[in-house]
């Protein structure tokens, strides 16, 4: 990080163009607001600022400049994908990533078996191996 340079908040998100997520499960939460840029949406999602839920993704409506913060992502049960030319979907990489970085303490992906098919040990378990 250079002096005077700010980190782009979009770096933490995976972008899928022309896609919106539709919630089938009514308990999933969404909050919307007019914002001028995707960077502003990303910053608020990353900080969970003004949100009553953990933001896992946001969709930006390029036509109305409206940000839709989502408590879910494309891998969540009770969600379907919808092709929509007005929207770009941005999902937090930490929730859609299928690989472990470092020791994996921050891993929030969906993979829970090893390459050979063995069920992974739960993080809160000391059996069969200690951490």
Automatic annotation (TrEMBL):
CC annotations in GO: extracellular space
Q: Which residues form the signal peptide?
A: none
Keywords, in A-Z order = Disulfide bond, Kringle
Note the superkingdom of the native organism.
Eukaryota
Question: Which residue intervals define the domain Apple in the entry?
Answer: 8-94
Work out whether the entry's keyword set contains Transferase: no
Gene Ontology terms for molecular function: endopeptidase activity; signaling receptor binding
Domain Kringle, by residue range, is 98-131
Name recorded for this polypeptide: Hepatocyte growth factor
From which organism does this entry originate? Phaethon lepturus (White-tailed tropicbird)
Phylogenetic classification of the source organism: Eukaryota, Metazoa, Chordata, Craniata, Vertebrata
């Amino acid at each position: 990080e250079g002096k005077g340079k700010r980190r782009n908040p979009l770096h933490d998100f995976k972008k899928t163009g022309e896609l919106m997520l539709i919630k089938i499960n009514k308990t999933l939460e969404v909050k919307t607001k007019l914002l001028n840029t995707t960077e502003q949406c990303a910053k608020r999602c990353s900080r969970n600022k003004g949100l009553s839920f953990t933001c896992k993704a946001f969709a930006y409506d390029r036509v109305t400049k409206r940000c839709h913060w989502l408590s879910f992502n494309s891998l969540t049960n009770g969600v379907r994908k919808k092709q929509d030319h007005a929207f770009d979907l941005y999902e937090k990489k930490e929730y859609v990533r299928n690989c472990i970085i470092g020791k994996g303490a921050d891993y929030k992906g969906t993979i829970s078996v090893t390459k050979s098919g063995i069920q992974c040990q739960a993080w809160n378990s000391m059996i069969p191996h200690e951490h």
